[in-house]
Structure of HD-GYP domain-containing protein:
Amino acid sequence: MRSMPAWARVYILCVALAGAACASPVLSGRTPWPTVAFLVALYAGCERLTLPRGLTAGTFFPVLLAGVFLLPPAAAALVAVPGALLARVDRRPRQVRRLWRAAQLALASWAAAGVYGVLGGPAAGAAPDFPQVLAPAGAALLAFSAALAALDGGILATAERIPVRGAWRGLFPRSLAPVAVHGLAGLMMAVLWTSPYGPPAALLVLLPMGVSCWAFAQYHRERAAHQATIRALVQAVDLKDKYTRGHSERVGRASVMIARELGMDDERIEVLRFAGILHDVGKLGVPTRLLRKDGPLTPAERRVIELHPEYGHEMVRGIGFLGEARAAILHHHERIDGSGYPYGLAGAQIPECARVVAVADAFDAMTSTRSYRRARPVSSALKELARCAGAQFDPAMVAALARALGRDGWHPGVTSDGPEGGLPAARGVPAPAVPR
């Protein structure tokens, strides 16, 4: 939501108005205000204590879902609003992001409480009766996850400009697992809340959840440190060789598309993204005068530039979290027929991650405008990749990219480096599908 398009603002406003409409009956009905006030304060406090900087509100769902099981729909919708509106938000526009999250959680809680009541859940404040309560509680959790996924897809389509046909893909399954775990904790809170021991006993449920959220926060802090390392390296390359500005991020994006199409798990996809972003980091070891040379490269100069995969591998050797991305950095200029560099590996000798990045690198090199040539259309670039498949590129990787682009399209954030960032026409490229 960096630029916040007009359609995104309209969408957020509509969601906020819908959330306000869902919560408004609390003013006219018989609302259990002590319970609402306690849950509101508890949710806001839990979010402030458990969230690391850079994350948004809403990761601590047990209190919200306890409200779903204890309160009528309108009151349940109100529980998340103050905490979300006061949450720490690092990315701008902060107020809009707070409003969006408050409205999203209010609508999801309202929908879940409504489903819970319709399917036979106990009346507000009544003790849940096991095992009969499990079916309506499970349906409520499904409704909560579905509402979050539906609203998230809308914001991805309007604010992040993700194609409509792909905006909702995978959102519901990814939200269901954490909601299910937190939902069980929320149901336990509701059971203890209505027991003779009352709310103090319900708070005991939050202790293990608090520990898990602390571990989650530590993971995200570590991930943020990884991202900062990557950004620093990429910025250093961009400062030295303006030709690559934006190229690294786009290669990372194309590598992710290929990896997903090949069915890799999320951990490997993340590693492939790192590999794509850092594939040219070895250019930091190449003399700047060669990277910016005004004229064709001599054979000796070309041999120096062809050392950048080895330089890059040496630079990242000690960065443990990169995993197999280090092999991709070293081998992304190898060719299937064995004529590549630095080691002349062939076929299956080339690590799979390197074969992915090689195709992503070549695709972006052809579809990006430089000072010495215009960008090729995506269809033309894919034809060139197909022509070189089996000799320069792994045919399976080329086919995976073609399928992903055919389904999702190509939406690069940067399509031209500008005249000051390119290289002169005399520099030359050995073949259309051979990136630097």
Residues 54-58, 414-436 have pLDDT under 50 and may be disordered. Residues 206-240 form the longest helix (35 residues). The chain is about 60% helix and 0% strand.
